[in-house]
Inverse folding.
């Protein structure tokens, strides 16, 4: 399911979003995180990882990436009602073959 189709209330124990929310436009990310938060049961967990950068752009394959910075990303998660349990920054390579800094977040519904 695409995240913009998520319409569930307290239905899931966890939402795993490995390298997919990085394609949500920054202007839509808050709404997407609100929908994920709503879909989780009390104390539900959510994992997502993002390619870090300095703003929305296209990768070398032409795909939209939101390329957030770490501080903005953590802030938007907190604003959506999540507690950040773990945040790990690491070097990684996406499908486009580019080495970048990534941020993996594990968060809990408050």
């Amino acid at each position: 399911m695409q995240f913009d189709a998520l319409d569930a209330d307290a239905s899931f124990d966890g939402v795993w979003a490995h390298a997919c929310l990085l394609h949500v436009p920054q202007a839509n990310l808050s709404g997407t995180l609100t929908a994920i938060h709503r879909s989780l049961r009390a104390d539900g967990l959510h994992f997502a990882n993002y390619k870090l950068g300095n703003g929305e752009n296209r990768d070398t394959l032409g795909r939209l990436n939101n390329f957030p910075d770490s501080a903005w990303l953590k802030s938007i998660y907190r604003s959506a009602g999540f507690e950040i349990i773990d945040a790990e920054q690491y070097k990684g390579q996406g499908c486009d073959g580019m080495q970048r800094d990534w941020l993996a977040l594990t968060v809990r519904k408050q």
Observations:
- The first helix runs from residue 26 to 39.
- The helical segments are 26-39, 70-79.
